[in-house]
Amino acid sequence: MASFTDLAAQLLLLATLFPTLTLCYINPATTSTHQNATKSSAYSSYIVLVQPPPSNAGQGAHHQWHESFLSSSLAGDSSESRLLYSYTEVFNGFAARLTDAELDMVSKKPGFVRAFPDQTLQLMTTHTPEFLGLRNGTGFWSQADYGKGVIIGLLDSGIYAAHASFDDHGVPPPPARWKGSCDAARCNNKLIGAKSLIGAGDDSDDEQGHGTHTSSTAAGNFVTGASYNGVGTGTAAGIAPGAHIAMYKVCVTRECKASAILAGLEEAIKDGVDLLSLSIGGSTSASFDQDPISIGAFSAVSKGILVVCAAGNNGPTQRSVTNEAPWLLTVAASSVDRSFGANIHLGNGKSIDGEALTQTANPSSKLHSLLYSEEWRYCNYEYDSSITGKILVCKDNKSRAQRSKIGSIVGAGAAGVVLFNDGIAGYTTIVADFSSSVVQVTAADGEALTAYIASTGNSSVASLAYNGTQFGVRPAPVVASFSSRGPSSLSPNILKPDILAPGLNILAAWPSKTGHGQGPFNIISGTSMATPHVSGVAALIKGIHPDWSPATIKSAIMTTSDIVNGTGGSILDEQHRKAGVYDTGAGHVNPARAADPGLVYDLSVTDYAGYICWLLGDRGLATIVGNSSLTCAKLPKVEDVQLNYPTITVPLTSTQFTVNRTVTNVGPAGSTFKAKVEVPRSLTVRVVPETMSFSKTGEKKTYSVSVSGHGLGKELYVEGTLSWVSEKHVVRSPIVALVAVAGGDTAPAPSP
């Protein structure tokens, strides 16, 4: 418990670290009587720091101590109605709605330390632009002109055109190459295209919300005062807020017909989009020549249109990744450094951190009995008086029936519910819109909570508290449990997924008429949410480099990605173990670095066609490429390991296995790059040449990588990195060596 001296020292440190904030700290005790007489009677929110309560009692005593500062200071209202939050961990104090005169009275009470006005900071409500290093009016976002002039096509469930995210303030008219049409309720310079491919009589309106959410994540304009149910308040923006949007409605009632997808891709190519974002995927992998996304996307890529797709939501199962074709940019999902904080304060003085999407400003600090039963662990209680006034502890099974049951339990008299993740979800908490008496916690915290109940029996008690939206949560990013994993079952020597991006608990636009969400925004999770983040980044890059090919943009995004989290440690998976390449792909997207990658790995239609010939033969080539002038007899067959991909995956044997890669200099003339190899001792990697010098921009050079292994244990794959390093750039590629097993096949590669 902090002393008065400790609190003063903390405040002094804050003032030193954040000098611009010191002007916001006030101490009404030093204000003159004359000044007090002129104060307004309007309510404002204040944060008040006080000394600890006289005793070392539990959380309830702190809450009562904080209320005591208000009880005799308010005219008419109760202290409970004014107390917003009660703090014991960050410091001792509270937040309350007060007039200036009331604050003056509070400041004269014994134990008062100081107070300062509650600040409204301008945050991105998706939070992901800021998390990805994008800040309004400065840096890379401004240099990229917010993606102006770039057209993002989305194949999805339609769009709610009237949403403020699709206002066109500051967005120029579409470029002359745009040939599309818009049949939405409101079309403008932002929403330049909207059409339904579902069937006659259907319009482009979004009855589900999914397409509205993804569209605004990719390119929604700035919307001030956005929030969901009071959390995440701030300014909403997509990753490329200046870009144009074209929506192709190909899904209805959560189903997307292959015919509609192909029709949407067809229209988008005709209309002249610059890139396509598809948050669509199947539950199983189909051969590329039987997959409508792979087929239609190849046509788009051959015409210079990058196609960004979701990796799927079937994680953490291995080999569950979808949209595996190498011409697609396949996106996995991660967390961000934000939570909707809530606490379970236990009777033993310990506290468990959780999340609550629906929060109460002034929850009761009363301690309630905890109830957990293995028999009723999924909250499948039949309601009776035995649960009245108790906090029920249940395991989350993510079913609609369970969510309905929880609502009934709380509504019928239970004091609350603590819902903990199962072991598979681990540390991935997908927040759900329950009542204000439901807190969600991780699997590890669920174990701790049930262990506390088992050890204390009928004397186990707790109270719930809410902390609002919190930022700077660590570790982040973390791979979400649902994010599908590699390796690819169709082409295991090409690393999939390609890239990791925010996809857990993402706030973005939502059509209010769906009946879901609170107001015009909603929070949902999935690789569907991760995909438009990368689409937005690609739009920013396309705006800066309009002549770059889809493969060049893809390479730039992959080779500049992050492989460390916000603390400088390795990116973790949902169990907080070190994530492997089949969880993260090349790494976590980093927009600013992707715009200036130094070197890129390009691929032409002919390169892809040679790969298709090797994999599927003439029939596959005819289906996917559809170019009668290209036949497998005329094309060199390109094995998957030799495809000029930005990642390197090879079979691992005791003898050297060599692959070649060709890089193109997109940095300054006169650049020199040196190879830096980081691999475990069980691998031997040789790169020839070890140094590459480029005399001009656009120059190409080829190098070889030879990999061999020795002293291997039971691991199924070994990973490392190859980086080409110059004075200004680091161009990084994962090296994945797959251990050969009986029969000559390569083993599946689960996360380590």
Automatic annotation (TrEMBL):
Residues 642-736 form the Subtilisin-like protease fibronectin type-III domain. Gene3D superfamilies: 2.60.40.2310, 3.50.30.30, Peptidase S8 propeptide/proteinase inhibitor I9 (3.30.70.80), Peptidase S8/S53 domain (3.40.50.200). CDD domains: PA_subtilisin_like, Peptidases_S8_3. The active site is at D156, H210, S528. Pfam families: fn3_6, Inhibitor_I9, Peptidase_S8. InterPro entries: Peptidase_S8/S53_dom, Peptidase_S8/S53_dom_sf, Peptidase_S8_Asp-AS, Peptidase_S8_Ser-AS, Peptidase_S8_subtilisin-rel, Peptidases_S8_3, S8pro/Inhibitor_I9, S8pro/Inhibitor_I9_sf. Residues 45-124 form the Inhibitor I9 domain. It comes from the Eukaryota. Residues 1-24 form the signal peptide. GO terms for biological process: proteolysis. GO terms for cellular component: extracellular region. This is Subtilisin-like protease.
